[in-house]
Structure formats: structure tokens, C-alpha cells
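[User] At your convenience, examine this fold.
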Amino acid sequence: MLRAHEPQVLDGGTLVLMGDVYEQFIEYRHLVPRAAPRLVGLLAEWCDRGAEVVYVVGNHDPWHLDFFGRDVGVQVVTKAWETRRDGRALYIAHGDLHAPPRSPAGRLSLRLQPLLRARPTARLYRMGLPGDSAVAFARWTARRFGTDGATNHVLADSLADAARQRLARTDADVVAFGHSHRAELDASADGAYLNPGYWFGERTFAVIDADGPALRRWHDGASVPLPL
């Protein structure tokens, strides 16, 4: 899919990865996860050719050090990426720090996220466990408490509400979140809320160009409009 869109990216476009590219990403000073080497190689190739690649971290992969920035050339963003393209103000974030909690568990999760993302927490985790053990424990935790990619519709509704509020209160024309795994494109007088959905399960993604935001699906080797 990325190769098919290579001309647009290399001709002044931008690739934005919206978090949770990895189920876990635990980077050490001299060790990085071995997953997705071909993806990393492609990103490095594009960066070497002058492309702009932005990686907005998610709740599963916030513990980056300097590998993607220094060695690959990717711009790593820990909170939200704000920019202007084709006359539109874009606000792009993973979304885990933006969803208004609607349950005690949700409120607890929202309070814990800043702690889990904090550099001292990551440092303690790395110091406490060697690389293989740290990754193995993170994988066990994901299997034990994860959702296997299922869409959380309560979370998705909260994110949509948060996006509408941001569109109404700020000068953003497009607010894009991931996190919920529910593909959405909702336009209003204040702007558009965009969620690219769940690539790993549904092969969905989003494109923002001069015509505005659009949802797409990679199907049978081609990019097709996503019916909603």
C-alpha cells in the first residue's frame, strides 16, 4: 500500500503514522525491536529521499528513544502533530489522551496514561528487566488485557465527541484520531473528524489532499474508497 502511494509522498506529501504501529515498542540504548524491518527500511529510504514521515506515538508504542529520529529520519511526536496543509489546519493525535472517560475504568485509564508514557517509567522498566523478558512480559500483558483489535464503540463515541468539541473551540479544520479502531469521517460546519480505522484488521487508512479528507481501503492490491 505504501509503495502504491510513493509518488504522492515523495512529491511533497507526508506520511503520518498514527500510533500503535507496534503492539509493544520497548527500545534500549543498543537494542530495538526486530519487528517490521521492511517497514523501517522503507521509511528510512523515503526519509533519505527527502520525504516527510511523522510518527505520532500511541498507547502501545510510546517508549521511543532516538532510533526512529536519528537512524531512520522519522519525526517522532509524543502528543499531537499540528500543521497546515492545502489551507487547512490539521490536528492529528493517537487519541488515547483525548477521549472523555465514561466509566470508572475509563477514568482510571486516562489518569494512568501520562504515567505510563513518562520517560522515568520507561527508564525504570528497562532497568528492571532485560530486553527479552521486558518484551515477553509486555506481550503477555497485551494478550491478557487486550481487546484483540475489537472496536470499542463507547471509546469511539467519546473520541468523536472530543473531536467535535476541539473543532468547535479551536481553529482546527480537521481533527484526526486513531485508537478506537472505528473508521469515521464526520463533516460539520466546524470542520471534519477523521479516524482511519484499524489497518491491521480492516486494511483501512485515510488520505488528506486538496479535496479534503477521505477514507480508503487496501483491497486486492488497490486503494478503493471506503463505503460507510
In short: The chain has a mean pLDDT of 91. The first strand starts at residue 14 and ends at 17. DSSP finds eight helices and eleven strands in the chain.
